[in-house]
């Protein structure tokens, strides 16, 4: 039985981590779904759920096969732990926060892949990024320009996180569960 990898993408500030945390809570008793903590070369500032690995250690971890998928973005290194491949092979739905720039590699590693593109209006995104205080106004404008480029593909499902959070969480959880292989849906009933 083969499961599915759900790549959650979207611009910084769209609320990917918020939706993932809410879905993890709602689906806590569902053994079909695994939420993977990505590894990032940035200390956890409390805003995102990840494990930290010093940037100097990333090359050795990559060489040792620690990651199913890895990439660099915005001066940082990111990795999805190798166990994600085994979880998909075991029939589970594996949900992970990815960079849009890593999607082609993710599609190669995980042929059974669904992309959930988290979106929100530009004004909302600008306000969220400014409230974080991690970037200056020029960096925010660069992020907004990148966010304006839509994620494309037959495997893409969009979830709008610009309104009520409960509505976005409902849509996000529905998108995740819609990826369940037929035999696991039947077995869960």
Automatic annotation (TrEMBL):
What SMART domains does UniProt report for this protein, alphabetically? GuKc
Cross-referenced InterPro entries: GK/Ca_channel_bsu, P-loop_NTPase, PhnN
Under which pathway is this protein filed?
A: Metabolic intermediate biosynthesis; 5-phospho-alpha-D-ribose 1-diphosphate biosynthesis; 5-phospho-alpha-D-ribose 1-diphosphate from D-ribose 5-phosphate (route II): step 3/3
The molecular function terms of the Gene Ontology recorded here are: ATP binding; ribose 1,5-bisphosphate phosphokinase activity
Residues engaged in binding ATP: 10-17
Keywords assigned by UniProt?
A: ATP-binding, Kinase, Nucleotide-binding, Transferase
Residues covered by the Guanylate kinase/L-type calcium channel beta subunit domain: 2-180
List the catalysed reactions: alpha-D-ribose 1,5-bisphosphate + ATP = 5-phospho-alpha-D-ribose 1-diphosphate + ADP
Q: State which Enzyme Commission number(s) the record gives.
A: 2.7.4.23
GO annotation terms (biological process): 5-phosphoribose 1-diphosphate biosynthetic process; organic phosphonate metabolic process
Q: Specify the superkingdom.
A: Bacteria
Q: Which GO terms describe its cellular component?
A: cytosol
Return the broad EC class.
Answer: transferase
Q: Which NCBIfam families match?
A: phosphon_PhnN
Q: Which family does it belong to?
A: Belongs to the ribose 1,5-bisphosphokinase family.
- Give the function comment from the record: Catalyzes the phosphorylation of ribose 1,5-bisphosphate to 5-phospho-D-ribosyl alpha-1-diphosphate (PRPP).
- The protein here is known as Ribose 1,5-bisphosphate phosphokinase PhnN
Q: Which organism is it from?
A: Oharaeibacter diazotrophicus
